[in-house]
Design brief:
Layout: H1 14-27, E1 30-32, H2 33-40, H3 44-56, E2 60-63, E3 66-69, H4 80-84, H5 88-99, E4 107-110, H6 115-124, E5 131-135, H7 138-144, E6 150-153, E7 158-159, E8 166-167, H8 171-175, E9 180-185, E10 189-191, E11 194-197, H9 200-212, E12 213-219, E13 231-235, E14 241-245, H10 250-253, E15 262-266
Parallel strand pairs: 4-5, 4-9, 5-6, 9-12, 12-14, 14-15
Antiparallel strand pairs: 1-3, 2-3, 7-8, 10-11, 11-13
Helix pairs in contact: 2-3, 5-6, 6-7
Keywords: Transcription, Transcription regulation
InterPro entries: Carb_Metab_HTH_regulators (IPR050313), DeoR-like_C (IPR014036), DeoR_HTH (IPR001034), NagB/RpiA_transferase-like (IPR037171), WH-like_DNA-bd_sf (IPR036388), WH_DNA-bd_sf (IPR036390)
Domain HTH deoR-type: 14-69
Length: 268
């Protein structure tokens, strides 16, 4: 499966074994404890201890079922497939919390280019309340098509290769004339200064969506925090509410402004 197969086992010296793990995370963004244990031929308890140690040294960030590599998000952008396999339980918990904010007859803006918004769309599709949903994401649009209770609006734009995102015009101009209740936003990176993205065209679209919304709710699992991507989207005080998981440490949480944004921490 990779160069490290059959070279790592419980009999190896702990330092040597962990170096193999470090090398693996240099090439891969995320892994589950079960997959890593099977891949490297070690026990689940051993891999958990190793991941805990690497996390304590700041080399990886632990998730409920495994770990993600800590690396600069300045230009790094994980594939949609990888994102779907990363922090799965965390994303679902965040979405479940976001659903509590949705009420009948609201108008919702759903962000584009993020798996967490795709999961939210799948859940909204199961709701039996009247809603208006505006999105520039083709996955979201497909999930909400043929739902009689949902008025679906797709502002339009050019589809970015390899993604579900429609960027540019006419979408940005269309959004300037909208007033929506909630914008469910995603982000490549978040820190106490603001939210940022790897793609400038995506930043322009998100800013238009923020301007169109009464309430901006950021949905981001803890692996997105305390890093910065290349392009700043908005300062943190333009975000009304952040929903994330308990992987965000209290120390990092306290670096954010005291009153805004409000935080909801989902226990996993």
């Amino acid at each position: 499966m990779n160069d490290f197969d059959d070279t790592m086992n419980d009999e190896m010296l702990p330092a040597e074994r962990r170096q193999h793990l470090i090398d693996w995370f240099k090439q891969n963004q995320a892994g589950s404890s079960q997959d890593l244990a099977r891949m490297f031929g070690i026990s689940l308890s051993t891999i958990r201890r190793d991941l805990d140690l690497l996390a304590s040294e700041g080399l990886v960030r632990r998730t409920h079922g495994g770990a993600v590599a800590i690396r600069s998000r300045t230009t790094y952008e994980p594939s949609t497939d990888l994102a779907r396999r990363t922090a799965v339980e965390e994303k679902q918990g965040i979405v479940n919390e976001a659903l509590k904010l949705i009420e009948p007859h609201q108008s919702l803006l759903l962000d584009t280019g993020a798996v967490i918004c795709h999961i939210l769309a799948d859940e909204i599709a199961q709701l039996d309340i009247p809603l208006t949903v505006i999105t520039n994401d083709l996955y979201v649009a497909k999930a909400l098509t043929y739902r009689q209770n949902i008025t679906l609006i797709v502002p339009g734009g050019a589809c970015r290769f390899g993604s579900y995102s429609l960027l540019g015009e006419p979408g940005e101009s269309f959004l300037k004339n909208l007033h929506c209740d909630i914008f469910f936003m995603s982000a490549a990176a978040v820190d106490e200064s603001g939210v940022s993205e790897t793609l400038l065209e995506l930043v322009h679209l998100k800013r238009a969506m923020i301007d169109a919304a009464t309430n901006v709710v950021l949905l981001a699992d803890s692996s997105r925090f305390m890093s910065r991507a290349l392009h700043r989207t908005v300062p943190i005080n333009q975000i009304g509410h952040i929903i994330t998981d308990s992987g965000l440490s209290e120390e990092d949480r306290l670096k954010f402004p005291e009153r805004k944004p409000a935080f909801t921490i989902v226990e996993i």
